[in-house]
Amino acid sequence: MDNANLQFICSTEKLLNLDYLICHIEYRENKSTAVIFYYDGQAYAYLNNCRHRQRRLDCEADTVFDANGQLLSCSMHGYVFEPTTGECMIPPRAGKKLQSLRIVEQDGALYFADERVRMINPF
Ligand code: FES
């Protein structure tokens, strides 16, 4: 990946001290938000857009995780997603998956490495 195509998100230290980070982006030229978090030592990023009815996962709550902090959960109707794959777990076999976004860790920082994404408010 050419470094010119990397878009700075935040330091790894910052994200390690947060449950997750929401940042404003354009995805395929449409305004949206992304949710970024560490899970089992690995950083993940998804479009913050529930695959049920296209609402933000945190549209009705101040979190994108379930009560145990283990699974991504939409606060609108309760769809639950596996954090490492984005697969919908509840309801089962819904066949829906959160849109993953490519990120990289480099020199103590996280970057979007996804040509579909443009950062609106870098930290
Ligand atoms: S909009 Fe997310 S569960 Fe319905």
Automatic annotation (TrEMBL):
SUPFAM superfamilies: ISP domain. Keywords: 2Fe-2S, Iron, Iron-sulfur, Metal-binding. The keyword Iron-sulfur applies. Residues 19-112 form the Rieske domain. Gene3D superfamilies: Rieske [2Fe-2S] iron-sulphur domain. It comes from the Bacteria. Pfam families: Rieske. InterPro entries: Rieske_2Fe-2S, Rieske_2Fe-2S_sf. GO terms for molecular function: 2 iron, 2 sulfur cluster binding; metal ion binding. This is Rieske 2Fe-2S domain-containing protein. It comes from Methylomarinum roseum.
